[in-house]
């Protein structure tokens, strides 16, 4: 979901979650589409973050799914920080092949953009952050969830150590000495090691007069 550049006042939902006037935005790396220290109004809308400057007739709208990180920063001048999942658009509409090519090159070089919002009323920062967190939670990145599920499923299928219960065959287990003859030399060696490990973990045993076995540690001295 890319960033949308605006050249006219945005259409918002009936009741935006929060609106903050007298807000300055800074983009890093700088963008030709945004004048330095552009001042306008920041809207925390239900499905996107919207900024627009009436004085310059410029602005942008960003779906919450395109915002990787948002946070409050108290360093220098307090501000609301946002990191996008890609570069900021180089132009609202490319004029000619040359400008379009330049825009594509810039987008390839810059992996992501950072936006900083500086409200004139710094007391608004906590409210802006809370409202944005709430809206972001209501608009999860479905593509990321699908990718995560696919990666989990791929790991499960590709891992030879993980087998569905239906794949197990009772014939895979050794239940009699006759089946030992079918083992390869390597398989027999593994079997002997496992058997030795199991025996060493059992308590010492002795044979009673009637031929049954009992634990030495539990037997009473005569």
UniProtKB/TrEMBL annotation:
Family: Belongs to the pICln (TC 1.A.47) family.
PANTHER family xref list: CHLORIDE CONDUCTANCE REGULATORY PROTEIN ICLN, METHYLOSOME SUBUNIT PICLN
Pfam families reported in the protein's UniProt record: Voldacs
Keywords from the named record: Cytoplasm, Nucleus
GO biological process: cell volume homeostasis; chloride transport; mRNA cis splicing, via spliceosome; spliceosomal snRNP assembly
Name the UniProt record assigns to this protein: Methylosome subunit pICln
Acidic residues compositional bias, start-end: 99-112, 142-158
GO annotation, cellular component aspect: cytosol; methylosome; pICln-Sm protein complex; plasma membrane; spliceosomal complex
Subcellular location per the Swiss-Prot or TrEMBL entry: Cytoplasm; Nucleus
Keyword Ribosomal protein applies: no
Region (Disordered): 88-113, 142-169, 197-222
Cytoplasm is among the record's keywords: yes
């Amino acid at each position: 979901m890319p960033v949308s550049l605006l050249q006219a006042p945005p259409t918002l939902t009936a009741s935006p979650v929060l609106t903050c006037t007298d807000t300055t935005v800074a983009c890093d790396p700088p963008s030709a589409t945004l004048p330095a220290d552009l001042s306008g109004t920041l809207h925390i809308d239900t499905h996107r973050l919207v900024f627009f400057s009436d004085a310059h007739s410029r602005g942008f709208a960003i779906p919450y799914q395109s915002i990787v990180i948002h946070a409050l920063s108290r360093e220098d001048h307090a501000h609301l920080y946002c990191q996008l999942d890609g570069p900021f658009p180089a132009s609202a509409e490319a004029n000619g092949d040359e400008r379009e090519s330049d825009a594509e090159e810039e987008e390839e070089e810059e992996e992501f953009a950072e936006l900083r919002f500086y409200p004139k009323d710094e007391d608004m920062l906590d409210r802006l952050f809370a409202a944005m967190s709430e809206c972001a939670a209501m608009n999860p990145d479905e593509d990321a969830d699908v990718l995560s599920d696919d990666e989990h499923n791929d790991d499960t299928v590709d891992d030879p150590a993980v087998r569905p219960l239906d794949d197990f065959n009772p014939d895979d287990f050794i239940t009699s000495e006759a089946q030992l003859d079918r083992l390869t030399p390597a398989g027999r060696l593994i079997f002997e090691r496992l058997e030795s490990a199991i025996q060493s973990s059992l308590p010492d045993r002795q044979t009673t007069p009637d031929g049954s076995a009992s634990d030495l540690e539990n037997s009473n001295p005569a």
